[in-house]
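Workshop exercise sheet. Pairs work together: one partner reads the sequence aloud, the other fills in the structure field after running the prediction. Swap roles for the next sheet.
Pair: D.N. / O.F.
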Amino acid sequence: MQPGESEEAAVQRELGEEAGYEAARMVKLASIATSKSVMNETAHLYLAEGLRPAPREPDHTEFIEVRAFACDEVLRMVERSEISDAMTVVAVLHAARRRSGGS
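Structure field:
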């Protein structure tokens, strides 16, 4: 988050910069410590719903390829370790649990 920026505004900004979308609704999934010993960083994970295109200028240090996948395929990619970064895995598992009716 940038100074003075709300968590929700930061989520919308990052979604625009990294994926080229904005969300009509955002559901907070979790807040996690990205490293319990190396640094003091918290990641706030959200599920974005009601997406519409809203491309923004990407961060000059990021080179991102955006591709869409069905939710079930993303879960299988996590299960096969094709998606392995911790923040994404946690977000996908939380979203899958919500989708299946878990709380």
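Discussion prompt: The first strand starts at residue 21 and ends at 33. What would you look at next?
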